[in-house]
Design goal:
11% of the residues lie in helices and 40% in strands. It has three helices and nine strands; from the N terminus they run βαβαββββββαβ. The chain has a seven-stranded antiparallel beta sheet with strand order 3-4-5-6-7-8-9. The two termini are 21 Å apart.
């Protein structure tokens, strides 16, 4: 689940970051990334269509200082630790290959680099904000 900074001045990481809510509260595109032991999944809702792409992991390095480096064919996903808690910022190097004819799809998934991420086991610790009575 993607995270965003919700309280710039907060020092507690579980208050400073919260779930990115734009795609939940607005009628707009939403993206996420999921990593298993063998596959990186990119999942998105783009222009009212569900998109997904799976990349088989060729190499996963966790011994790199303050980073997790995942190599797939033609690209590398680098999760750089940005907080004392397990919060990471994603950098994608290389060329993500998509079968879709629409060149916007690749640019759309590269937006994953705009968010922060935490391991699934940590997600329950983050603040959850709802949309309230918002009619977006």
């Amino acid at each position: 689940m993607s995270l965003e900074i919700s309280c710039e001045e907060c020092t507690d990481p579980y208050t400073k970051y919260s779930f990115a809510f734009d795609a939940n509260c607005y009628s707009c595109n939403g993206i996420d990334i999921s990593v298993t032991d063998s596959v990186v999944y990119l999942i998105g809702y783009f222009n009212e269509a569900l998109l997904s792409k799976a990349f088989r992991i060729e190499k996963k390095e966790t011994a790199v200082k303050d980073a997790i480096v995942i190599t797939v064919k033609d690209a590398t996903f680098i999760f750089n630790k940005v907080d004392k808690a397990e919060i990471y910022k994603l950098v994608i190097e290389g060329d993500l290959k998509f079968e879709a004819d629409d060149p916007m799809v690749k640019d759309y998934f590269l937006q994953l680099q705009d968010f922060y991420y935490a391991p699934r086991r940590e997600l329950h610790k983050f603040a959850i904000y709802d949309c309230g009575d918002f009619d977006g």
